Amino acid sequence: MTRARLRDLGITVGHLPTGRYNAITDVPGISVGYKTLVAERPHVVRSGVTVILPRDDARWEDYAFAGIFSFNGYGEMTGSHWIEEAGLLTTPIAITNTHSVGIVRDAILRYAVESGYAAPFYLPVVAETDDSWLNAAHTFPVKPEHTVEALKSAKSGPIAEGNVGGGTGMICHHFKGGMGTSSRVVETRSGAFTVGALVQTNYGVRQLLRVDGVPVGREIGADRVPLARVFPNEGSGSIIVIVATDAPLLPDQCKRLARRATVGLARVGGTGHDGSGDIFLAFATGNHVPAHPDGAVDLRMLPHDQMDPLFDGTAEAVEEAIVNALTAAGDTTGQEGRMAHALPLDELKAVMKKHGRSR
Questions:
Q1: Can you give the pLDDT at residue 108?
Q2: Which positions are catalytic?
Q3: What is the C-alpha to C-alpha distance for residues 181 and 133, in angstroms, rounded to an integer?
Q4: In percent, how much of the chain has pLDDT > 90?
Q5: Superfamily of domain 6-290+301-329+339-351
Q6: Which member of 5, 144, 175, 347 has the greatest number of CB atoms within 10 A?
Q7: Residue-range domain boundaries for the chain
Q8: What is the pLDDT of residues 59-112, one digit of tens each?
Q9: Phi, psi of 173 (to 5 degrees)
Q10: Residues 6+ apart with CB under 8 A from 140
Q11: What is the pLDDT of residue 121?
């Protein structure tokens, strides 16, 4: 069966409406770019780079408030200390494999300098998950020019999922994983806002996988689809979650939003195992913070007691984004003939129908 998004299979999660594209790019001004690397020689490569641009062309001059939450910290996200300190996202965000974090970070920095953006220094935000089970990561296939290609390819509207960008070589609940996205439109007393999530999934135990509460991982066990064994400790791996909204949030509110990504992860079956790098970043574009202000900056703030719809939207968007990564990703053979099987969509539909969860 052709790979598809969850809703294309007649399966929905949550109750809130999605944005037009059901993607993080439903948040105005946000664009996403990929560089996907697949090669057989001289090494088997299944890797890449994903970039998120928070404000299109104004990304270097118009900062966004942001917050970070580490559910389990066996991972890396560069630039996180400055976000923790100042609550400001000042660069694009990139996600890649573990061995390429430094390469991608330096490429973003050089791109900014060579493009003439006038800051004395930048602290690029680059996160990672480990694709070394399928990808010959020790050969460092991701090069600086691949990051630049991802930056230049960034677009709004519908975006690819599954085996693309940084998610090309990733595993999720011992099925093939990768990139996924989703969005929700929420209503508050201050107006309607969009919340979008983009995830890079490389975590999880098969038996814990759930879709809309249905124990899919138990129904489609190793006897049906062989496990992709990533590490001796089967729960090891990582997930990076990026949450974006156009609501006028301050940094502490962004951190509160980032924490709620944990709810969406838990609904799918992620429990933050010891060897997992589960790091979540949320940013809000509802305020404008100029890179070089002449004086005090006027800000808006959504009252704390109106945050609940955003919390609900974040949980639902993260939950669906993770499942979209699974339904979009296809079978992948990696180094040494290792196989990561895709979640079988016909069987998923049958299981969901059995439990009364599909149209």
A1: 96
A2: 238, 276, 278
A3: 24
A4: 91
A5: L-amino peptidase D-ALA esterase/amidase (3.60.70.12)
A6: 175
A7: 6-290+301-329+339-351
A8: 688 999 999 999 999 999 999 999 999 999 999 999 999 999 999 999 999 999
A9: 50, 35
A10: 99, 100, 103
A11: 79
